[in-house]
Task: structure prediction
Amino acid sequence: MQHPNQKPELRPSAAQLRACAVFLDFEGFRNASASPLSTDSSRKQVHARSIVFWGADTDSPPSRLTFGSNVMVSQVAVASNHCVAVSNAQKLVFSWGDDEFGQLGHGDFAAVVTQPKPIACLTGKQVIKVACSGDCVAFLSRNGILQACGRGKFCSLGHGDIANRSKPQLVQFFLSMAVADIACGPTHMAAITAGDSALWTWGCSTSGQLGLGTVDRTTFAEPQCVSLPPSVTPSQALCFLERSVLWPRLHGHIDDRAQIARLWWQCM
Result:
């Protein structure tokens, strides 16, 4: 008899694996339906998928976090003091951890949320990606809408001011555009818009991480368009403490791979 783990149809897809930011417990896949066309109702049950979590200044061993019956986690974003998880199938977004600046999106400024809690205002919304870092979180919807909440001290939320937001709020600058990708750093964010594939950054440029030619803690309260090298079409952006990385979509030009190294914005 063939072991369930040897059945390709019961294994998680490559897309599901790429979407996960932390280790996942795939035990639920063993009992999942072998075929979406099966007429056996007992085989249609979708099992909850949990994540394995550790750290947070504790010496506890890795432990399992669950998100409720039949909730399938499709993405997890991790910051130094909080986490956010997305369930595309159930159209739910969960957050937990430190909520001092409202970064969990629950509408208050709680001390700590110890277990994954659904963000009520995002329930039913088609959030396809979350990014978090420092005390900020960005939420990207399938229709290209960008929302952000958390600490506004460095103007990193893109709302045009330094106010903290305890609920996800629409970044109005992008109302006439569709956002295709989003990245979040401790004091800045980056977005790529669909169609024109333009790169936008905002927040505090302490070390040139905005790519705007400034390294003197200049603050940009609204998104600024970054001038990119010729022949580079952005595909994905990543933000770190004092640098940003852009992963270009290669077009077959011999120098495109070299462009990647030159897109690290850091004051040496």
